[in-house]
Amino acid sequence: MRAIVCRKPGELVYRELPMPLASEGYTLVRIRRIGICGTDLHAYEGTQPYFTYPRILGHELAAEIVETDVNDFSKGERVTILPYFACAQCFACRSGKPNCCSQLNVCGVHVDGGMVDYFSVPTASLIHGDGLSYDALALVEPLAIAAHAVRRAGVVPGEFVLVAGAGPIGLGIMEFARIAGAKVIAMDVNAERLQFCEEKLSVPYTINPLNGAVTQTLQEITNGDMPGLVIDATGNLGAINQAFGFLSHGGRYILVGLQKGDIAVSHPEFHKREATLMSSRNATRSDFEEVMKHIQDGNLDPAAFITHRVPFCELVQQFSSFLNPASAVIKAVISID
Prior knowledge:
By secondary structure, this protein is an alpha/beta fold. The chain is 27% helix and 26% strand. It is built from ten helices and 18 strands. Strands 3, 5, 6, 9, 10, 17 and 18 form a seven-stranded mixed sheet that branches. Strands 13-12-11-14-15-16 form a six-stranded parallel sheet, with helices on both faces. α3 packs across α9 (285-297). The longest helix is centred in the middle third of the chain and has 20 residues, at 134-153. The chain starts with a strand and ends with a strand.
């Protein structure tokens, strides 16, 4: 079967690998769609934490069951995959938070992922497709990350939520903050992405920090209060550090984006706000289920996020183009038909 391997930063190659074998507790699936996410791009760049080479990328997956040993799933069924393989034994797992398991293996990051024709996955990680298309199923995982972040943040209806970063995760966060009743403010240095927020997601407020006067603009939008909730989806150290200053007194700051450096914050400024700082990592099965329910109910349109499509056989040649801002990519999806 075909596989796409990131051998080292800047190098993707095709490889022929043996067909996976069916085994107890695992299900063999045929991959049909793969979403390309920031983790894949950062791995290609060499900036992804917790990453080793060589690695088969891919964890935003939609698949068709080929062979399984359980009655809950059937051959030919569409599924998506919970790509966070947890130990089920550590404190986090015992506390109902397998998304941050101390021994977590994320497929496509810590272990080989789904940029392959066929994939053998723990049956416990399968999620029924419930009638959703392959395109929609491939977007459930990034949207679940967004749903998890908004759930952790405890969004209050009517509050101002500043989302820094208008990539796929940030856009998903904006959507779930909207569903929760928040007044969303989008911030990004990419004018085209801010236009996408306005036109496709009807985000009421957008800010480009390259234009300056961010604090003043936020004060004007929030009637002097500043946002009660700031969520970072940039993964950019400078942006993360700067956004501490955009937080209201008594506010919360949620870090979803990930980078390798150390955060720097003025303790007196943070302390006097009695601010709350939290990280949000991955998602849980309930987050996946929430996303799928919103798609089924028409509250979310995954197709709105897909701006680029590429056949599996052309990915190696096209992958680097997705790092170019001129490509205007929001979400690229790989098709295997």
